Amino acid sequence: MQAEQSTSGSIGDKSSVRRAFLRGVLVSSPFLLVIIPFAMLFGVLATEAGLDLLTVMAFTVAVFAGSSQLTALQLMQDNAPAAVILATSLAVNLRMSMYSAALTPWLGRLGLWSRAWVAFLLVDQSYAASVAEYERNPKLTGPERLAYFFGTVVLIAPFWYLATGAGAILGAQIPPELALDFAMPLSFIALTAPMLRTIPHLVAAFTSVTLALTLTWLPWSSGILVAAITAMLAGAFTEMALEKRA
């Protein structure tokens, strides 16, 4: 009898993990509408900058972060020093450290390799979809949370790589009327707008936008670096001030 219950429980666990994975796939599938043109845009721009197909694909597979890839590519075209390229790309991706901190309460007890894969596959879309699900269903088990996370990125990663390769191969054959560059701002607006729910979030967003636009005159797009760091500090200080007042 106990053996039957154990088998039934195991089947139930596998079924719930499978359902969590499929929910992640379903929720993340609309993101392909912006992921595909965004990746194709990077492939086109990278080949126009003189990178060969192998370098483009190695770049996108190793980094797997669209906004920082485009930033680094632009700085490379501007002949910026390597230190500036690395620092600015890091600043653009500093939000990933905040994403990681937000996911730690949900995924922090996983094994080392699971956490390593989560870190590598952590992008704006997988973060936004996963955190929303975890907050909505806090009773999910660790395997269910991990399965849901992988479900959110199982389509994004391969389509990102395939679309990057397609953009690199087709290059100038893609007509400018397609306006592939619409995907990047549209994607970030769709992801960040629903998350601006507190005063610190609004302060950080306003600070980053204002400084990024004001400091466009700085060389090598270093205004982005200044805007990112200042925005995080502004949001953190605002949160501490509100906590003290409370």
From TrEMBL:
Keyword Cell division carried by entry: no
Localization in the cell: Cell membrane
Record key words, sorted: Cell membrane, Membrane, Transmembrane, Transmembrane helix, Transport
Principal subcellular localization: membrane
Pfam family of the protein (one): AzlC
This protein's GO CC annotations: plasma membrane
Spans traversing the lipid bilayer: 21-47, 53-73, 80-96, 146-172, 178-195, 224-242
GO biological process per UniProt: L-valine transmembrane transport
Lipoprotein as UniProt keyword: no
Membrane topology: Multi-pass membrane protein
Superkingdom field: Bacteria
Family from the record: Belongs to the AzlC family.
PANTHER family, per the entry: INNER MEMBRANE PROTEIN YGAZ
Protein name: Branched-chain amino acid ABC transporter permease
